TrEMBL record:
Residues 168-341 form the NB-ARC domain. Residues 9-98 form the Disease resistance N-terminal domain. Pfam families: LRR_R13L1-DRL21, NB-ARC, Rx_N, WHD_DRP. Residues 427-500 form the Disease resistance protein winged helix domain. It comes from Vitis vinifera. It comes from the Eukaryota. This is Disease resistance protein RGA3. Gene3D superfamilies: 1.20.5.4130, Helical domain of apoptotic protease-activating factors, P-loop containing nucleotide triphosphate hydrolases, Ribonuclease Inhibitor, tRNA intron endonuclease, N-terminal domain, Winged helix-like DNA-binding domain superfamily/Winged helix DNA-binding domain. Residues 688-808 form the R13L1/DRL21-like LRR repeat region domain. Keywords: ATP-binding, Leucine-rich repeat, Nucleotide-binding, Plant defense, Repeat.
Amino acid sequence: MADQIPFGVVDHILIKSGSLAVQEIRSMYGVPKELTKLCGKLGTIKAVLLDAEEKQQQNNHAVKDWVWRLKGVVYDADDLLDDYATHYLQRGGLARQVSDFFSSENQVAFRLYMSHRLKDIKERIDDIAKDIPMLNLIPRDIVLHTRAENSWRDTHSFVLTSEIVGREENKEEIIGKLLSSDGEENLSVVAIVGIGGLGKTTLAQLVYNDGRVKEHFEPKIWACISDDSGDGFDVNTWIKKVLKSVNVRFEESLEDMKNKLHEKISQKRYLLVLDDVWNQNPQKWDDVRTLLMVGAIGSKIVVTTRKPRVASIMGDNSPISLEGLEQNQSWDLFSKIAFREGQENLHPEILEIGEEIAKMCKGVPLIIKTLAMILQSKREQGEWLSIRNNKNLLSLGEENENVLSVLKLSYDNLPTHLRQCFTYCVVFPKDYEIEKKSLVQLWIAQGYIQSSNDNNEQLEDIGDRYFQELLSRSLLEKAGNNPFTATLRYKMHDLIHDLAQSIIGSEVLILRNDITNISKEIRHVSLFKETNVKIKDIKGKPIRTFIDCCGHWRKDSSAISEVLPSFKSLRVLSVDNLAIEKVSMWVDKLSHLRYLDLSLRDFEAPPNAITRLKNLQTLKLNECWSLKRFPKDTRKLINLRHLENGGCANLTHMPHGIGELTLLQSLPLFVVGEEKELSRVHTIGSLIELKRLNQLRGGLLIKNLQNARVSEGEILKEKECLESLRLEWAQEGNCDVDDELVMKGLQPHRNLKELYIGGYRGERFPSWMMNSLLPNLIKIKIAGCSRCQILPPFSQLPSLQSLDLWNMEEVEGMKEGSSATNAEFFPALQFLKLNRMPKLKGLWRMESGAEQGPSFPHLFKLEIEGCHNLTSFELHSSPSLSTSKIKKCPHLTSFKLQSSPRLSTLKIEECLLLSSFELHSSPCLSEFEISDCPNLTSLGLQSSPSLSKLEIHSCPNLTSLEMPSSLGLSQLQIRDRRNFKSLELQSCSSLAISTIQSYDKLKSLEMPSSLGLSRLEISDRRNLKSLELQSFSSLSILTILSCDELTSLELPSSPHLSRLQISFCCNLKSLELPSSPGLSQLEIEYCDNFTSLELQSAPRLCQVQIRHCQNLTFLKEVSLPSLEKLFLSTVRRVVLIMFVSASSSLESLFINNIDDMVSPPEELLQHLSTLHNLKCSGLATSPHWIGSLTSLSESEISDSPDLTCLELPSSLCLSSLKVNDCPNLTCLKLQPYPCLSSLKIGKCPKFASFEVASLPCLEELSLGGVGAKLLSKLVSIFASSSLKSLYIWEIHDMRSLPKDLLQHLSTLQTLHILKCSRLETLSHWIGSLISLRELGVHECCQLTSLPEEMRSLRNLQELYLCDSLILRIRCSVTTGGNWSRIAHIPHIHFFDDKGIKFKVRNS
């Protein structure tokens, strides 16, 4: 394996050697000539590095050895210069201990030690430089992008269509673009973008050979351009490749080649495929494009590339982004190649292994094909297993070389300054997600980013460009958002990760259990899972990165603490769960440290030893909830660029002198301390400290401004890189401070994009807000400013897109301005939200002379809630408005939208005085909901052709509704219209769902057959006596509820009717169903007078539910061959006999209150032989008759108050048993059912005896409404099982979980505890549930805190802490002391989740 050349570190040394500090060091330590010679030789070596890299890839072992020696001395030289610089900084420090250390005696020792190191390094570099001629290494310009020869890499247009899988949709999209005539140009580009191996070339081949493409274009030309990448782009080579594909002989001159090319394509509608394009030089692409512009209108170019930027340069801003194949498609492709046609089933022993291998390929066709080809001739199971078990699918030796070579093109094409940045990413495991800012900080810490110019460009800006370059080349990809901050996170594709790992080799090591050998060359170490590897094996090695993110899993961190001080070259340190006392003992010895992450730690202050780290650039203390203060000497961290303290809710003040850290770019939180309380103990940094920190960027929250002094002056005005500013006052703070004067001095730079103000207690906003001095503001949120009466003229801000006003109690309106002004009203506003503004009377206050309300040209979303005095609402013009929501405006009487052509969603709720509503033409309106408007009498909907959903709830005075031309209406719900007399539906051919409910005065209803109904619900028609339904060809669901006067019902033929439900029709006597070929579900409930049911034919009826129809006696005999589920309750015995006798495939039966039936008739048992699921209620004795149900696997016994003892026969083979609501049950006797996996016992308060030998397969247990002692008695059952899910609910005498459970719950994955009112604590041993993935605590009011051991639950993914205010406060991000114990859990839910509660009770 070739060693990666440390281009970045070499550049770092050479640039650092020319700095002013190093020049002074040369003189100070008497080594000017030595350092100059060393750097000169290193410059000579740098010139031949590109040539050395190429020769190394050609397996030149002498060059490999040369590179190996070079790497060692380069890193040592970097450390040497760093030690000189650090010593220089320390000598200039003020700390007494530093001065004492550097006595004259120590100075002599230091100079002697350093001179020996310098001499050794210089000699080694001299030796390396001497070998350059012998190795025939040639100097090259390092700016040029070098790459290995790729003559093997060529492509063609032929493709075997039968071997292509999963690209039909992409193919049709591309062909659609190629054949489209919309706005045709002379020449346009269609780009296919994706990482190597996804099948871009194959997809282009499919398109190229499609019959429609062949007919549309003439000629068609295919050219592979993979050699021409980066700055090596050459116009001549491109033309040669194009001419080669059309069999034209090359000419020597560009002019001759141009003429030959034009002979082929001039005035012809041609198609040119340029495969594997890398060029990112716009000018050179334009040179080629000019030569191609001679074709006819409609000529197209198809480009395949890995880089989105290539597509953009070539003119396609909406390229086809290729994704991986689905899992079934991957297997289809794999099996087609690995097995010859018809042979898939000849080798069943390897079929399953093959499916696993195909899944591991992550949908990348090239990898799938390569592995399938390897396995095509192998039929031994061991051969397949060896590949399946190989964790790096790409490391398969010579047979897999092509895949590595294809992927390595991405690396070979990288500029040298990006190469170490790219490979460093493998310090994180596959699929690890990281934010861009953090990755750039790590690159800077390693010295990979250097500014090579004098324009004062920040390293972070350069790093951002590096990052974007890697992203554009698909070497990094977007992975989603951080759930807490919404910041984008990124990751490496697995294949790219393998590529980077193969390049960097043993320099980076992720410690795992399978690591048997640790290289001497290791420099970057990460630990993300608990491992058995001896940490001490890396002690003393030249480690530059150590990231430990699994400390919470480790009971003993002493081994980590022992080895860390030995990492003398360490640049990056991130440790988890390491006692802060131990860190303070040795952290200042790590003099090279530039990046230190102590986030999510429980300490009140970082150790003061940190302040002696003169090179520290990044200090992360995010989410340190207990943090109250910083070290007093924080100002000594003179190189600090990022002090991240976001989420440190208990921080009381900032350290004195923090304003001296003028390099600071990140300071998310600045807390203004209360000087009267804190100054006696600590020296406090006041707000004025911010004034010198003009490099701050990103976001800044200034908290506790009630403590600020009014004479602070302008402190934010010069911070031109600050994008987001939050200003917060605590309501309970110092009332003597003049908030208006404080705000006056907080004017930010005009570049600010986001502004949040909370709790401001002034009556007026400052002049910098009132005079619109922030033209670049995009987002504004103002909350809790209860005394302000006049808002600034936000309407004049040219860039404002989002305005959110909340709890502004005194504001009456928003001032538009004079009618004489020419300024647009909210020219860019897209989102407007007004909440809890009780005095607001209108959206604006008009000046005299204004004729009409203003328009909102770009308003996209509008929300108004809790504006009690808002009486009218009118938008004159809002051409972009898409969503509008008006809620809790009790005095709103009128609502008008004059022109909203793009309005798609409108919701109006709880507007008590709203009497009329008029909506003009709304061609895009798709959803309209109006509810709880008791005075609404008329509703006018003009033309709404796109309306698909209409819901009207609780508007009792609405008497009529006319909906013309609602052709797209697919869902209609009208409920609680007591006075509604008229309903007219016109031209609703798309109406699929209709609900008509609570119309007391509606007596007849006719539904025209022209409706395209698929679902119809008619309910609460107390006076409805007749119902006439035409035949609906599309009707699939029909529901009729609470039609008290309806006596008979004859339904028309509806061939697609699948579900019929009739409930609470107390006078309905008969139902006649014609032939219903599609009917699958029939439900008839609470129809007291129902006597007759006629089914003509229902061959697909599989589920029947009849409840509380005690007078039903007649069922026309019909065969029900598909009946599988039968639910009968409170019916006569004859109904059971009729339905069971008509079925032949019954699988589930629920019976309750069947004429006091003790057991089914003997003649019926033969019809129950297929029964799998039985639910019985109302039992008085054990149902011994179920022993004859040999197929029974699931059983439920419930609602049996007379049942005292339940004993089930041994002949059963149950997998699930549920016993519920048997208040007098005391004893349960079970056989040791070998298949029972689920047992649920609930609401059996007297249940005390449980007799069973063992339940070896039990995985799920639910216990509720029983005594706490029963839980302890079940320990013996756990001992023989592998319990995965445990649900405990309504056990009110349980104060804590039984201690004896611990040893039997090691396999537990899910634990929920609900309504255990006396539960006070989660036992400390809960931290030992290492497999737990989901934990829920619901309505346990005595449980007020979580144990420290929660930190150990590293596999926990979901945590529910619901309905406990105290627990929610203590575990919240901003106020909770318990947060650090659960912060590692990805998904935390604090609010009531009815779905989870239902799951716990009914699991």
